[in-house]
From TrEMBL:
Residues 27-173 form the YncI copper-binding domain. Keywords: Membrane, Signal, Transmembrane, Transmembrane helix. The keyword Zinc does not apply. It comes from the Bacteria. Residues 159-210 are annotated as: Disordered. Pfam families: DUF1775. The chain crosses the membrane at residues 217-235. It comes from Streptomyces venezuelae. Residues 177-210 have a biased composition (Basic and acidic residues). This is YncI copper-binding domain-containing protein. The keyword Membrane applies. Residues 1-26 form the signal peptide.
């Protein structure tokens, strides 16, 4: 009876965890393809699940942060969907690859397709250059259903507070890799290993040479002793004769 009660309690606890954690998987989110390094370019996937059983998602609007302007935003073609890119002029032009950029993308909207109940859709976008002095980017998004319902994924999480009901997608930025430093370190290690191998080979060759010389000397000494023994035997015979 006690075992049954424990099993029942465990089942209830597991069910509660699933019920509480379920909605977290249904948020609109952004995921990097590979790494999103500061100051670099990346391909982002905006993942949109359909949260309703009686309606389909028919539109997604993603807003790009104005205070972190991106000079390049290119949506990937998705069968059944049409993307619209909106831009705004900058008060102060940016210089990218030696060229001045006067406007940046502030919004991308996808329409025309459908995300049915129990399904999700990814919306890939190639972006750059990512900010060099920021730890993350927030992309406030709006999801629209064919029954007229609109869900605004625009709430920003606050440190120490519970996750918002409708959090905005957040992209974490990683530190750029020091390829040159890494390569130089690797080359230095390779050089050290090569020097060690060369020293080991030299020492081995010297040892082999010394061993070979010793063997030859012992061989010659053996021959000399042998000849001496033969000569002694001959002299002894002559004397005895």
């Amino acid at each position: 009876m006690k075992t049954s009660r424990v099993s029942f309690a465990a089942a209830v606890a597991a069910g509660s965890v699933l019920l509480l954690s379920g909605p977290a998987f249904a948020h609109v989110g952004v995921q990097p393809v590979g790494e999103a390094a500061k100051g670099g370019y990346a391909t982002l996937n905006f993942k949109v699940p359909n949260e309703r059983d009686n309606a389909a998602t028919t539109q997604l609007e993603v807003n790009f942060p104005v205070d972190q302007p991106l000079t390049s935003v290119m949506p990937q073609d998705i069968p059944g969907w049409t993307s619209t890119v909106e831009k705004t002029k900058l008060d102060k032009p940016l210089t990218v690859h030696g060229k001045q950029v006067n406007e940046v993308v502030t919004k991308v909207t996808w329409t025309g397709g459908k995300i049915e109940a129990g399904k999700f859709q990814q919306f890939p976008v190639s972006v750059g250059k990512l900010p060099e002095n920021a730890e993350q980017m927030v992309f406030k998004s709006i999801q629209t259903y064919d029954n007229g319902e609109v869900v605004r994924w625009i709430e920003e999480a606050k440190e120490g507070a519970a996750e918002p009901q409708t959090p905005a997608p957040v992209l974490k930025l990683t530190a750029p890799k020091g390829d040159d430093h890494h390569d130089s370190g690797a080359k230095a290690d390779e050089s050290k290993n090569a020097d060690k191998d060369a020293d080991h080979g030299h020492n081995k060759a010297s040892a082999d040479h010394g061993t070979d010389t010793t063997a030859r000397a012992l061989g010659i000494a053996g021959i000399v002793i042998g000849l001496g023994g033969v000569a002694f035997g001959v002299v002894s015979r002559r004397r005895s004769a």
